[in-house]
UniProtKB/TrEMBL annotation:
Keywords: Kinase, Magnesium, Metal-binding, Pyruvate, Transferase. It is an enzyme of class 2 (transferase). Its cofactor is Mg(2+). Belongs to the PEP-utilizing enzyme family. Pfam families: PEP-utilizers (PF00391), PEP-utilizers_C (PF02896), PTS-HPr (PF00381). Gene3D superfamilies: HPr-like, Phosphoenolpyruvate-binding domains, Phosphohistidine domain, PtsI, HPr-binding domain. This is PTS system, EI component, phosphoenolpyruvate-protein kinase.
Length: 599
């Protein structure tokens, strides 16, 4: 490329699609992601239709098929880069293996009932009676002061810490005034009014959720009362916490007015596999069963008998596919060309360990020990008991020492206020300020390990000296208490970019590496992982190049335990790079194993 290409203002490229499975959900999301990374416009033209390539739903609605002639048009600086990236991504679809249960089918039932068109938010099909979301049929519990109500909301969000959305809400809550309800409310109202009409309008729901939660804690918390029978929730607006309530109800689908596919509510609907569409019109108060077809973006009201039979058959088929994944969860995950991949689970406490046991995981790849005791400092015996209970359950457990600092805190570990907590005392750096607590934790872990294979992992390590100091502390403690280290290995989380350039040195001292892609991405791009406006492309080439480099340069086993390990879109890329161990949330184990079997 010469300098003139670099500054070219407009690029148009026509390609004939060689994508046997068409451009379904995952490729649409990928294309939209690539386009969103470009500052100028990116358009896709098919025949006489031209759409914005940054809008995944519009790409899906184009229904691009194998053999279609498609034109990509980009404007602005480096327009050729974004087109090259999309075209090179499209070339990967030639040999694409798709897991049919995950993709959006191009099939559109010719339903006989009245159809209302909507945009797909979360794919799937659901049948049930409409339930019009209201806030008045709720039971009420005790009233609280503002301080308590604020704290209750904070505690609730902390307990949902395994979900990025609630981690972000917690950070948002902590950034708001804690002095009085008036100040809290006025800060939220001004944030909402400045977000209106902006690119980040979807964040308004998070602010409203926080205000609702604190308000309802003060006025008496409201517990939603849902119908017992299958229902489709119809709402003008849903908030992230509403989805958590719906998850344990008989909700079979959701229809929400003007819901952004990028909103947290949309992400939660997808992660909980609740079929959902967004509509732009008001929905009348129907009494009878309706169908949400979120594979073709339709709400079917007054469906015929035939419509119901066909929709039920389709739902049963989907359930069967999910069941097959679930039934095969204890089988190993081997790619089509015979490469075995270990799928481990990320856990946080004894309860999640028990759940992981039933998930089919091949051991525990990450025990986030900071969530074992969240209220008050546990005694040595209490810690030892919890670790023993967890170690009992699995042949292999990787336990991470306390990773406090940055976005994680514990009431009994007081850290000084810092200008940049993500760059301050965090993870293994606690040895500088709280050596006793880490020492006691190491003692509890080593006592509980008995003869079990155990991996001890230090987070946030940036230099070999930090690792050596931490490991020496463990050796000293083992000696002092006459504990054997025979079955214990020591490794690090790869989260700080300096490690990439020190791998030759680390190879000499560590036993294993586990890549924390959440933090590695944050530090590679210098963007706070909880930042509410700045977003990072989770599939950026920079991150994948970093992963390749780690695998190439390390002489010790490498696994991934960050979010990326459970991203079905990139499993094949991770395996291509040479990763053979993934550690994922336990509820994802069956589907990740199934995805690997199709690579
Ligand atoms: C990570 O950073 O990817 C990771 C797994 O650690 P945590 O998300 O707990 O910081
Ligand atoms: Mg981390």
């Amino acid at each position: 490329m010469n300098i003139f290409d670099f500054f070219k203002q407009n690029t148009t490229t026509k390609v004939q699609l060689n994508a046997p499975h068409g451009v379904h959900l995952r490729p649409s999301a990928m294309i939209a992601n690539i386009a969103k990374g470009h500052n100028g416009k990116v358009l896709i033209e098919l025949g006489s239709t031209k759409i914005d390539a940054k809008d995944m739903n519009k790409i899906l609605a184009l229904g691009l098929k194998n053999g279609d002639e498609v034109t990509f048009i980009a404007s602005g600086k480096n327009a050729n880069f974004v087109i090259d990236k999309i075209v090179s991504f499209l070339s990967t679809l030639t040999n694409e293996n798709i897991d049919d249960t995950q993709s959006v089918s191009n099939r559109v039932f010719d339903f006989e009932g009245k159809k209302i068109k909507g945009d797909i938010i979360s794919s799937g099909l659901g049948i049930g009676k409409p339930y019009f979301w209201q806030n008045d049929n709720h039971s009420v519990t005790t009233k609280q002061t503002f301080d308590n109500a604020y704290k209750k909301t904070l505690d609730k969000l902390s307990s949902m810490d395994d979900n990025d959305i609630f981690v972000a809400q917690k950070a948002l809550l902590e950034s708001l005034p804690k002095t009085s309800l008036e100040e809290f409310e006025s800060a939220i109202k001004s944030a909402i009014s400045s977000l209106r009409g902006s690119e980040h309008e979807a964040k308004i729901a998070d602010y409203k959720d926080l205000l609702n939660s604190v308000n309802s804690n003060m006025n008496g918390a409201k517990n939603a009362q849902f119908p017992k029978d299958d229902f489709i929730v119809i709402a003008d607006e849903l908030l992230p916490s509403d989805i958590v309530k719906l998850v344990n109800s008989s909700a079979k689908g959701a229809v929400v007015k003007n819901l952004s596919p990028r909103s947290h509510v949309a992400l939660l609907l997808r992660s909980h596999k609740i079929p959902a569409i967004s509509v732009s019109e008001d929905i009348e108060n129907y009494n009878d069963v309706i169908i949400v077809d979120a594979t073709s973006g339709l709400l079917v009201v007054k469906p015929s008998e035939d419509d119901l039979v066909r929709a039920k058959e389709e739902i049963e088929k989907n359930n069967k596919d999910n069941l097959v994944e679930f039934e095969n969860r204890f089988e190993s995950a081997t790619t089509k060309n015979g490469k075995a991949i270990k799928v481990q689970a990320n856990i946080a406490d004894v309860q999640s360990a028990k759940e992981a046991l039933m998930s089919g995981c091949d051991g525990i790849g990450l025990l986030r020990s900071e969530f074992l005791f969240q209220e008050q400092k546990p005694s040595l015996d209490e810690q030892c008991k919890a670790y023993s209970e967890i170690f009992e359950l699995f042949d292999e457990v990787t336990v991470r020492t306390l990773d406090i600092g940055g976005d994680k805190s514990l009431p009994y570990i007081k850290l000084d206020d810092e200008q940049n907590p993500f760059l301050g005392i965090r993870g293994v750096r606690l040895l500088k300020t709280h050596k006793d607590i880490i020492g006691e934790q190491l003692l509890a872990i080593l006592k509980a390990s008995r003869k079990k294979e155990l991996k001890v992992m230090f987070p946030m390590v940036a230099t070999t000296d930090e690792f050596i100091e931490a490991k020496e502390l463990a050796i000293e403690i083992a000696k002092e208490h006459e504990l054997s280290l025979e079955n214990v290995s020591f490794g690090i989380m790869v989260e700080v970019p300096s490690v990439l350039f020190l791998l030759e040195e680390f190879n000499k001292v560590v036993d294993f590496y586990s890549i924390g892609t959440n933090d590695l991405t944050q530090y590679l791009f210098a963007i706070d992982r909880t930042h509410k406006t700045l977003k990072i492309d989770p599939h950026s080439d920079a991150l994948f190049d970093a992963l390749s480099l780690i695998v190439k340069k390390s002489s010790k086993p490498v696994s991934i335990c960050g979010e990326l390990a459970s991203d079905e879109e990139v499993i094949n890329r991770l395996i291509d790079i040479g990763i053979d161990t993934l550690s994922v949330p336990s509820k994802m184990v069956p589907s990740i194993k199934s995805r690997i079997r199709n690579v």
